[in-house]
Amino acid sequence: MKVNINKISVLIRELEIEVPQDRIKEKFDAVYEEIKKNAKIPGFRPGAAPRNILEKHHSGLAREEVIKQLLPETYQDALKMENLDVIALPEITDVNLDSASLRYKAKVELRPDIAIKNYKKIKIKKRTSEVGEEDLKKALDNIKEARKIDSIGEDFAHGLGYASLDEFKTALKRQLIMQKESDNRMLIEREVLDYLLKNVKFSAPESLVKRRFSELLQELREYFTKNHLPKEEVEKKEKEFEQKLKDQAQEQVKVFLILDEIAKKENITRDNQMPNKVIEFLFKNADWVS
Prior knowledge:
Elements lengths: L1 E6 L4 E8 L1 H18 L12 H32 L8 E7 L4 E8 L13 E3 L7 H15 L6 H6 L5 H35 L6 H21 L4 H35 L8 H11 L2 E3 L1
Parallel strand pairs: 5-6
Antiparallel strand pairs: 1-2, 2-4, 3-4
Helix pairs in contact: 1-2, 6-7, 7-8
């Protein structure tokens, strides 16, 4: 099999692939054997029709099946031959099958080289999740304002199912601590991701950025549609948020690929939970400072 590679851009390559005659013949033989098992041709029992008769009645089907099977097989072979690590499905064009060979082009986008250093011992500032009296007072004031009441006493606590006002305050304080822990977690994650983005330089694959942008745009569309915005207003909002969503898509793709590279280096399972697992790994190996 012959493979010629043309460099289109930093990450995009066009492969010109030519599959030799012997492999095509082998595939046609296998395909016609399968057709023979089920072909219904007048004058022949199923499985008994000779090859020339099968070719006369089913050449189109056989050709289609040969191309269908050989394209993915030979494309994968080409990637292995040239040691190419691609990031998305190929764009297949110019497919040409004749008796001598199968030729086609496959445009692919490569996974970028991501050189990650110093991802262990990232300095992270510790944050307290303590809730003081001022925090509690502010929360109670917010409740009073939201419910338009003058004070929060025993009757209010009883109305919510608490035995006493103190019990209600204890539960509220616990809720505030949980919220603070969640907020702190988000801030720390943001700091870690900002550090990685700042210290790891590479070009994000265009295909992944475009796909993520489309997903974000669809989410925005659905959000405004659910909130009963007229179609023209939705379109206006899309244009308004377009650049912001493109920037988000670019950043999110880069973050994912950085975390994926760390997962590969540290033998962390690369499944749907991979980002969370890598974040936990980074927290565990961070340099926590007061």
